[in-house]
């Protein structure tokens, strides 16, 4: 319980990260692939564009027919065909000819440029009022993507344009890492769901809601459970949940000074690798490896649990999907002196406004409002005794935590 | 078609924003409220904590009994009861007495402080080795939230800690704005879904995938449709979709120089407020108001459609949910000269690395790879003729666009 027996934050993070494994691979429809992680290199099956096509509405011509053309000196051409997107002209464009063409339609044989409609007048034939270079307003077959190109590398976190690229390469299903399925087990006999009247010592189970949202914010799939502080029941739940989910997160029952029920059960079923971390809030954090699966044991206090999630859990659920987003730390100026204890990392709820950060006035880890009103953590590492007013400090914006 | 006849970007944005209306309000379970927008002020029904409780595992005592206590001078107390979280002691703590208490358990009557277990030894009774002030390690009833407090204001975009606050205030259902339902109508007879062999002039419908993901990235609900370039069919789809969805987004058929089918249908059914914007890519953008609903008409070209979405559509789908996130523009140093045409806003796909931004070498709006390989737009406003190498320019990071 004294600081010297607690694990430093960085050591705890390393122990956890070393144990984390990637989830299995699954094939999913490309339409559902936004924010998924590609599980193997994907090669294009097609050229894109699939044929050389017009980039403009206008006329497909031989560029040399337009040399010297201008508004004052228009060049007449004979229109021999017209084609819309979706069809191909059977005519070959020869000297003095033009084919009216829509954006996206295949270039007719013989033509090497497209004159935009705006630079023409349609008379008997057409008159061209500008001079073109070969290739002008033509999108060539394969200029965006070539058949056989690697379209997307393993590990890519898919964004909207990536999906267009994969589709254009001929793919309607792709291999991705499964989103990890996370059992969240809230422990505490005193906890009840929100209601208007509370009896005696009842407390509302607010962790149910935050943990669900936090797991969702890591793009994992939460399923929520509640259990009383009963060792037998907790043990049954552990065994059952670790069969059916990729990881287990618990809240409550992690006190360090005594055999609290959750950590005790973890010790009986597997190996407790961490119990107690030199951080504040969040000291009573534990981590176990049971049945080849990770078990994150968080404090029952809402604020401590949220900080433990952000520092000890979040990245690991991302890593299970092979998603590696570095923790984005920025430097801001402290608006007042912030004391801290040597040997313990502090995560202080704070408000960043431009370059200034102000720690909120917080009594303890019960104060949910401190999380609601803040937009960031000030991080004071173990080796610092706080920050002076006007000094620089490290800050993690909550927004930067999300993927 | 010439620049002077195109609407400046800012004017187009203002025309659209003036027309946008909020969606209806719905009551949803609090568990599903992450990333929803609160539709009215929500008042707490309860105090939180609901009773004064211990913040630590230890002993509830009268602080004055511990004055002067230390490891060398422990003060003995008689243990008269012990309580866990979820139960309340019936004993009143008087001078010389202590009740063993778990974190979160209600303070027994008469006690005004809790001594942490670590600073005690359990003998016959207990010995206290530290001196306490009244209130120490006690969380008082209502210190976080008071019954009648406004817990959450109308317009709040809900994050995980907010849900804990709402739960603690007694709410399990809350009023939020409906996520807008968006019909996405992809037009183009040449378009087919991804496949390994393309016939003649067939082109893969990559917009199907990007538009779905883009609408999802605005937290709206997309439903995708495809229609051939047939005026009658397009009109039927418009009428049908505008009955059943909150807004319509189309791609294709928006060329400015001629009566392209989509804009023509919009003109027949309602009022076309915008047709052609002085931007690149994305000039052939149109916006109509039909049946009291917004219709965003995008280009058929994937890259143009994406830029039009980001600049002309995205914010409006957010505003429909009463979500107002300012467009975050940063300033970066151009790694090379970037030419631009006066009177037209350019959105140049670019790569930001630290303080430097490099425009990608891009030929046209067919090049999907330019979107995939970039992480930002360089924005060159209408009144600028480009940026010199080493000059500052405005940049929108794609990441900053997401909510």
Question: How are the secondary structure elements laid out?
Answer:
The structure is a homodimer of 403-residue chains.
Chain A: H1 9-19, E1 25-29, E2 42-43, E3 53-54, E4 58-61, E5 75-83, E6 97-101, E7 113-116, E8 120-122, E9 126-128, E10 138-139, E11 150-152, H2 160-168, E12 173-177, E13 181-187, E14 191-192, E15 203-204, H3 207-217, E16 221-227, H4 231-244, E17 247-251, H5 261-269, E18 271-275, E19 279-280, E20 286-290, E21 293-298, H6 302-320, E22 330-334, E23 338-339, E24 345-353, E25 356-359, H7 368-373, E26 376-380, E27 386-387, E28 392-397, H8 398-401
Parallel strand pairs in A: 5-6, 13-16, 13-17, 14-15, 17-21, 19-24, 22-25
Antiparallel strand pairs in A: 1-12, 2-11, 3-10, 4-6, 4-7, 5-9, 8-9, 18-20, 20-21, 22-28, 23-27, 24-25, 24-26, 26-28
Helix pairs in contact in A: 1-6, 3-6, 4-5
């Amino acid at each position: 319980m004294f600081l010297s027996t607690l694990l430093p934050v960085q050591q705890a993070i390393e122990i956890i990260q070393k144990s984390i494994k990637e989830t299995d691979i699954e094939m999913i429809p490309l339409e559902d692939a936004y924010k998924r992680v590609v599980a193997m290199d994907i090669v294009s099956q097609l050229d894109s564009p699939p044929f050389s096509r017009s980039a403009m509405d206008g006329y497909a011509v031989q560029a040399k027919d337009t040399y010297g053309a201008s508004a004052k000196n228009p060049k007449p051409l004979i229109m021999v065909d017209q084609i819309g997107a979706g069809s191909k002209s059977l005519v070959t464009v020869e000297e003095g000819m033009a084919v009216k063409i829509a954006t996206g339609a295949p270039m007719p044989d013989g033509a090497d440029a497209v004159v935009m409609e705006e630079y023409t007048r349609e008379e008997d034939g057409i008159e061209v009022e500008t001079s073109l270079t070969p290739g002008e307003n033509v999108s060539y077959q394969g200029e965006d993507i070539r058949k056989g190109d690697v379209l997307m590398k393993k590990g890519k976190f898919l964004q909207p344009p990536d999906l267009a690229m994969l589709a254009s390469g001929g793919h309607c299903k792709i291999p991705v890492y499964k989103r990890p399925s996370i059992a969240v087990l809230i422990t505490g006999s005193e906890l009840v769901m929100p209601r208007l009247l509370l009896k005696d010592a009842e407390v509302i189970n607010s962790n149910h809601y935050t943990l669900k949202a936090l797991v969702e914010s890591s793009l994992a799939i939460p399923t929520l459970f509640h259990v009383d502080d009963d060792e037998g029941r907790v043990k049954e739940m552990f065994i059952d949940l670790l069969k059916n989910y990729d990881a287990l997160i618990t809240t409550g029952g992690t006190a360090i000074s005594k055999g609290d029920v959750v950590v005790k059960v973890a010790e009986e079923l597997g190996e407790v690798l961490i119990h107690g971390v030199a951080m504040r809030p969040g000291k009573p954090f534990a981590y176990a490896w049971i049945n080849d699966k990770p078990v994150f044991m968080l404090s029952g206090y809402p604020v401590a649990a949220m900080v433990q999630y952000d520092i000890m859990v979040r990245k690991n659920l991302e890593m299970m999907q092979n998603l590696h987003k570095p923790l984005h730390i920025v430097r801001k100026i402290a608006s007042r002196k912030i004391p801290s204890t040597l040997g313990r990392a502090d995560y202080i709820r704070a408000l960043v406004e431009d370059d200034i950060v102000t720690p909120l006035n917080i009594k303890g880890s019960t104060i949910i409002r401190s999380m609601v009103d803040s937009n960031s953590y000030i991080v004071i590492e173990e080796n610092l005794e706080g920050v002076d007013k006007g000094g620089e400090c490290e800050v993690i914006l909550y927004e930067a935590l999300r993927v």
